[in-house]
Amino acid sequence: MMLLAKSTEICEKILRKGIQYNVEHRILPSENAIAERLLSRRVELIDVYHELQEKLHDQYYALETFFGALLTAAAFWNPDKLDAARKGKERLEAVNRQIATRAAGLACLFDERSDLHNRSQFYTDTHYDVCGVIEAAARDNHLFNSWVREEFDGLSGRFDLKYWPTLGDFIRELAADANNAIALPSDPLTAAGTKASRPSLSDFFKAFFASIEENSSENHGPMPSSFKLTDSAYASLANSALGLPLKSIVDAGYVKRLRQRQREEDGKKART
Fold this sequence. Notes:
Elements: H1 2-25, H2 29-40, H3 42-56, H4 60-76, H5 79-119, H6 130-137, H7 142-158, H8 167-179, H9 188-193, H10 202-214, H11 231-241, H12 252-271
Helix pairs in contact: 1-2, 1-3, 2-4, 3-11, 4-10, 5-8, 11-12
């Protein structure tokens, strides 16, 4: 009983220390909310804390890192946040499609305007070369004016229009760039959490496991590469950290099946 109490004390001290640091620096209120939730559910986590202490008892920094990974995953890679990330990806892809379509049409208009300037008896006092556009667009850019403009003016003055892309070519490149763009996750946790096409609680676990792996000794982190909790421990942590309602709580069997699927997926990747 004393060992359980000691393990709980150590783990909760780490949580309180993190809360205090965040409050003092006015950062990460969402992580603090998760930490407070864990503290309020001590009874459900006593066995988990004991298991953590048994496996990381002489590696305090690794224990701190574990809780950091848990708080971050629960705060930023929970099902709601990952669903928002998926929607963000969908919107980014839609915006790139719109840019590609509109830029392609705009490039044709620039070509037509240039042609009308050359063959009609009228003209407009508008931009006709990319150098002029760059200089005009950077008129309020202090760093450009202080460090770049003089050399750029000299370069643009040395070479006439035939050495530079037309405005139509410039816009067409933007269209092609947007058309060929692929939305990629900016970090391993987002990649792991949004791998599936449909959102589910498994996304959180994938992101959490990815965070632990990112902090493992194989990746020059403090977590032992052999570190692994029981399925029931992971289930209890998820239920508590995410504040899952009774109808949504997960058990050891859920985590076991999830990890088995993940091992099978990793095995297929290794064989290809």
